[in-house]
Design a protein that fits this description.
- It is a single chain.
- The protein is mainly beta.
- It contains no helices and eleven strands.
- It starts with a strand and ends with a strand.
- Helix content is 0%, strand content 58%.
- Strands 2, 4, 5, 6, 9, 10 and 11 form a seven-stranded mixed beta sheet that branches. A four-stranded antiparallel beta sheet has the order 1-3-8-7, with no helix packed on it.
Length: 119
Amino acid sequence: QVQLVESGGGLVQPGGSLRLSCAASGSLRSIIFMNWYRQAPGKQRELVAGISQRGSTNYADSVKGRFTISRDSTENTVYLQMNSLKEEDTAAYYCNAVKQLPTYVTNYWGQGTQVTVSS
C-alpha cells in the first residue's frame, strides 16, 4: 500500500503562485510515475504533470511554462510549483502514484487539495 498526502492548496489571486506537496509513505518500491491531476467542477479529471522514476517530466499543454513538477527522493515528496496562476487553474488537485507490480500496474491517489484562483 501507498499513502499519499497532499498539501499547499489555497486561495490565490490571478498571477500568483502556489506550491503543492505530495508526501508519499508505505511501500514505495517500484513506483514508476508520480503525477498531479486536477478536477474542476463538472469536468473530467485531467493530468497536469508527471515525473518518471528516471526523472523525466511531462506537462499538459495548458500549464507548460507555468508549472514545474519536481521531487525530493530523500523526503519521498513530489512538488508542483504553480506560477502565473489563472482562474481556469481552479480545481481540486490530486497526487497519483503508479506502481509496477509483477503482472499489472496499480494506481494510488491522495485525498486532494483545493486550489482556487480568484480576485
